[in-house]
Amino acid sequence: MQVGTGKSILNGIAIGKLKIYKKKDTTISAAAVTDTEAEIQRFEKAQAKAIEQQTALYEKALAEAGEDIAEVFNIHAMMLEDDDFVDAIKEIINGQKKCAEYAVKTAGDNQAAVFAAMDDPYLQARSADVEDIAQCMLDILQGVDTDSLQGTEPSILVAEDLAPSETVRLDKSLLLGFITREGSSNSHTAILARSMNIPALIQCKEISPEWDGKMAVVDGYNACVYVDPTPDLLESLQKRQQEDRKKQALLQELKGKTNTTLDGTTINVFANIGGMGDVGAVQQNDGGGVGLFRTEFVYLNCKDYPTEDYQFEAYKQVVESLAPKKVVIRTCDIGADKTVDYMKLDKEDNPALGYRAIRICLTRKDFFKTQLRALLRASAFGNVSIMFPMIISLRELRDAKATLEECREELIAEGKAVGKVEVGTMIETPAAVLIADDLAEECDFFSIGTNDLTQYTCALDRQNAKLEPFFNPHHPAVLKAIQMTIEAGHRHGIWVGICGELGADPALTEVFLRMGVDELSVNAKSILPLRKIIRSVDLSK
Ligand code: PEP
Ligand code: MG
After folding, report:
1. Phi and psi for 132 in degrees, rounded to 5?
2. Is 475 a catalytic residue?
3. 336 φ, ψ (degrees, to nearest 5)
4. Residue 143: what pLDDT?
5. 173: how many CB neighbours lie within 10 A of its CB?
6. pTM more than 0.70
7. Ligand lying nearest the CA atom of residue 499
8. What's the pLDDT tens digit per position in 87-124?
9. Mean pLDDT score of the chain, rounded to an integer?
10. Has residue 425 got a pLDDT over 60?
């Protein structure tokens, strides 16, 4: 038995024969051509066919993985018509007297290199998209039948890397899983694999041509692949796979059903996300909306302050693809465990009690306003709520709201569209719990951040592993704080949700329902298991 390790894309098991997904060697002639007009025509034909293919892939991805993922192929179709790209190809054919293949490959490589060198991570990621569309045109020009590469038997594909269009094109009824040597967990290919529920391992350096045709198990739980597994191991992983399937089948039956208790109380079960990459999982798991969009990831993914336009795109994509579902977006919660170099934050003795979240935003108004303007602009594309983290005083809530209003007025004066937004307070400090009545009078909802609320209520640094033995997630003080918050919110007619990890704890679902919680926002995978519990509770008993 051989074991390969890598990064897992999905917690799941795939069992089957390995198939090396060979890309045909595409030798491209650099010799001069005489009939450049004929080459231009070959290119234009390939370009038209590639656009057709991307449109078909859009439809396929839409059906298999959802709108957000499918959008990649719309972008590809647009890139294929991009003037700079097309002009560069024609220039190589006419100016350098090269064949269409050479021109497409050279212009594609050049443009991909330009994108790869950009600072903006969104534009950097476009490099892979350019390579993808150039390869599609090359396959067409060279008559490569990519559909035949997968073979006819169900298998686990092994490849150096897979482009998004290759992944969508694969026949899913024959695709048990895949393993690649390259790839990143945020690539479109990885996102696709997750949203299509395909166990996959990336960055597996042990991949070898000798694996072709061998029996293997991709173990997504342990981020490894067993090639020629021992009979005992195979048997135990087969069992695990069957259990997974049974659980999945049961949970799938809950899709489309309401989160209603036996006695008729319905609550919202929303998802926590870090960005667009998680939206597929929200849709796959039938999330009613997003209860916590942690926008720090937008900042953490950048090498410098993300601009208003960059942020606008990041928020708009999420909001638009989930509309009309509610998306609760938390303003930047940088600081403590989440830092970025470009903000040049000082090292602190007590970072969890330090300069973080709303404290940074309220003292660096331009920084805050950039985000608020982006959020307000995105709100024109769907159903947006905005909430502020780490609030400890009414003054902070008022300041944050006043800055939001200032941004709204500015945008309206500039003629930019803004939507109507609910404004909420995160309750994650004991101070906020104790003044919850005052806060509730001046906002539209509360969202309880139990991770920080536990940290601050119990004075237990959530980053300190040594404190594990002292940590009691069901500490009565934390549960009491949650109850007080829900009661205060309801006294003032606002809804109250829980977005910390405790919201997904099945042992507490009934407790929270009895407290009267209106929303639980959890990781997408917990949505259907929670729905199952909610539907079995009878609050009248
Ligand atoms: C929390 O504190 O519970 C919360 C949801 O926010 P974060 O975990 O991002 O601090
Ligand atoms: Mg928090």
Report:
1. -65, -50
2. no
3. 55, -115
4. 87
5. 7
6. no
7. 1
8. 999 999 999 999 999 999 999 999 999 988 887 666 77
9. 91
10. yes
> What confidence tier does 277 reach under pLDDT thresholds 50, 70, 90?
confident
Q: At what angle do helices 100-116 and 36-65 cross, to 10 degrees?
A: 50
Distances (CA, A) of 74 to 33, 69, 163: 33, 10, 15
How many C-alpha atoms does 12 have within 13 Å on its Cβ side?
A: 22
pLDDT tens column, 427-458: 999 999 999 999 999 999 999 999 999 999 99
Residue among 76, 50, 302, 111 at smallest CA distance from 188: 76
Sequence-distant (6+) residues with CB within 8 A of 433 are 427, 453, 481, 484, 485
- The Cβ of residue 304 has, within 10 Å, a number of other Cβ atoms equal to 12
Out of 302-311, 377-386, 482-491, pick the least confident: 302-311
Annotation says 332 is catalytic: no
Residues 6+ apart with CB under 8 A from 300: 338, 340
Structure tokens at 83: 């003037």
If DSSP codes are grouped into helix, strand and coil, which group holds residue 1?
coil
CA–centroid distance, 251 to ligand 1, in Å, is 27
Rounded Cα distance between 443 and 440, Å, is 5
Contact 451 CB / ligand 1 (< 6 Å)? yes
Paired tokens of 503:
């919201």
Strand order in the sheet with 2-5: 2-5, 224-227, 215-219, 13-20, 155-159, 175-180, 200-202, 7-8
Maximal CA-CA distance, the chain = 87
**pLDDT value of position 426:** 98
Catalytic annotation, pick one of 76, 99, 188, 204: 188
For residue 449, the CA-to-ligand 2 centroid distance in Å is: 5
CA distances from 361 to 103, 266, 436 (A): 49, 36, 21
Taking the C-alpha atoms of residue 199 and residue 235, their distance in angstroms, rounded to an integer, is: 18
Q: Which pLDDT band holds residue 251 (cuts at 50, 70, 90)?
A: confident
519-522 vs 495-498, strand pairing mode: parallel
Sign of the CA dihedral with 395 first, then 400, 402, and 403 last: positive
- Examine the pLDDT at 403 and tell me if it is beyond 60: yes
